Structure prediction request, 511 residues.
Amino acid sequence: MQHMKMNIRKWSSWLTAIAMITMASGCSKFLDRKPLTATLDDLNQGGLEGQIYGLYGAIRNGDVAGQGFGGIPWLAMNNFRSDDTEKGSSPADGADWGVIYDQFQYVKDHWSNTTYWDQHYVLIGQANTALQIADSLGLQDPASDVNRGEAKFFRALAYFDLVRAFGEVPKIDFRVYSATDAQKPKSSVGEIYALIDKDLSDAMAILPVSWKNASGENRFPGRLTRGAATALAAKTKLYRKDWGGALGLCKTVIESGEYSLTGNFASIWTNAGENNGESIYEIQASIGANGADNYSSWYGIAQGVRGSGDWDLGWGWNTPTDKLVTDWSDDDPRKKSTILYSGEVDGLYGKVVPAYPSPLPRKYWNKKVYPEPSIQTTTGSRQAGWVNQRVIRYADVLLMAAEAANELGGADNNKFAEDRLEQVRARARGGNNAILPKIAYVDKAQMRGAIQNERRFELALEGERFYDLVRWGLAESVLGPQGYQNKHRFYPIPQQAIDNSGGKLIQNPEW
Prediction:
């Protein structure tokens, strides 16, 4: 095994040396992810492997500057703005972030939204370069086609984030050779979604169903599949209320037979639970024994308990709110697997969490990134930089399918929605039929509320809640007490991006 990993490292180092894109930052990091056991013969590399593995490295946020997909800028944009999480950390640490995101006093030139914008366009630029290289070299082999699919998925994912966050944004779907090439005006939301649709359609057509070998072993955990592209496409349809399109894509994922809910919700968030049968797409991270082969992510580090000594587990950002804790029934086992309580036994490893308000600055923490003591010992790190970021789970697909079917209506769809909702609730209740009873379909409004409620708790702290509230038309009523107005559905375009655009990029009209 060690010889195998060394061969892979040598191969990937050679690829890095010849890569034709200077921004690529991690082909070896993807290949060295700890579960990977591929040999050179397994790799079946296409002509774009160096560029494509760089995309996997870039989205993992492996460097200090890159936090646009999992660090605190991503947490702020995707989590702090909801009613379920807040800035967290100590009150004095990054106090401006709480005002900006929790209280909806947006700032155009704050480094958080500038980083979020920049890192998304960096990923888009890397994907564009890979696609241009493929075209210029006339690469038509199957492996290179798969690489094209991976590049298009990443470009679509980045644009989906941008269009949700900012609305109209520049469409750059070509290789950029100079800064002036990227000085483009905004494209309409429809134009951005058209690009997303085309990219994901192409990706679905060419990405493999899985990366399993003949013995059923997944050679590349975390590498993109047809299911990942299909699930993301379904979500983009859901955001546009294309219920038929979303349902059809969700059914494709469901009927593929490639995914299933894990038996125990709590196990998803353990180290052993990474890349399980429910995982459709996870951003991979790892730290080897004694800190070797460190390909860590800011995702777990940014959210770990902010304490001292053995409880210095991270920066403590993105903490649950009192509202989430109050609204969530204690009968739901997912609550204890999602929220870590200061001053109480952790309920997992037998450790007592220090008390609030001293020495810990928050009542609650995100238990979905709570580090296992055994892994801390192995890595020599208290902070969980090795935690994978779960981006798309099968439970999310089931709930999207239920929502789309309910909105379409009709006897068959009503039953389908009821059954998909029940699958998620049945897993959550863990065999205890005295809790979380089955919700029978009564009418569309009743089922809509039940599905919305289920998404809130099943996907808590995972970056879905704010955008769900916006697309459901509930943001003003739910977030209004925090200062939210309809204009806050979109963040203002970073002032730096406008200043660098040569007068072509215009601020969002409400800002």
